[in-house]
Amino acid sequence: MTLETVLLAVGPGDADRSDELADAVVEVAKPADATVVLAHVFTSSEYDDVLTRLEFDRSVDEIEPDEVARRHSTIIDLQGALDEHDIEYEIRGGVGEHGPTIVDLATSVEADRVVVGGRRRSPTGKAVFGSTAQEVLLSAPCPATFVRSDDN
């Protein structure tokens, strides 16, 4: 299978692991010369919070999620890492429940691989890996890579 498009999906909890996510996506995308789709997914309430925090003009009829994602610090950090490695990318924003929205984005961009992050879980927590990661790993239309963060 040829690897042409890799979806790197991040959310509000991923700011502290952008280095690990960048390393993982570079490792997958660079040898294949694949394009990376950097996607930031927000729930509706997270989206409203980000619009306020980033001081978007709410008098505008509609603010595109792609534009909000472009201005988000996690995406900006990841862009820097991809630029360093000369990897082509595009930026997408999504609004909805994290797991299903990531799966929908993977389908719409025809991703050949999805990369998502998560946290290490306690022995009890391992039974439920995290609803977003679990949803993506079980429902993605292509192979998915889980990048675990060591913090709790």
SSE blueprint:
Layout: E1 5-10, H1 18-32, E2 35-42, H2 44-53, H3 65-70, H4 73-84, E3 89-95, H5 98-108, E4 113-119, H6 131-139, E5 144-149
Helix pairs in contact: 1-4, 5-6
Can you give keywords for this protein?
Rossmann fold; 6 helices; alpha/beta; 5 strands
Task: Please sum up the structure shown.
This is Universal stress protein. This protein is of the alpha/beta class.
Q: What do you see in this structure?
A:
The chain has 152 residues and is an alpha/beta fold. The chain has a single domain, classed as HUPs (Rossmann fold). The protein contains six helices and five strands. Strands 3-2-1-4-5 form a five-stranded parallel β-sheet, with helices on both faces. α1 links the parallel β1 and β2. α1 packs parallel to α4 and α5 runs parallel beside α6. The longest helix has 15 residues. The mean pLDDT is 89. Belongs to the universal stress protein A family. Pfam families: Usp. This is Universal stress protein.
CATH class: Alpha Beta
Number of domains: 1
| CATH homologous superfamily identity | HUPs
What percent of residues are in strands?
Answer: 15-25%
Gap between N and C termini, in Å? 35 Å
Architecture, according to CATH? 3-Layer(aba) Sandwich
**Poorly predicted tracts of residues:** none
Biggest sheet character: 5 strands, parallel
Family: Belongs to the universal stress protein A family.
Protein name: Universal stress protein
InterPro entries: Rossmann-like_a/b/a_fold (IPR014729), UspA (IPR006016)
Pfam families: Usp
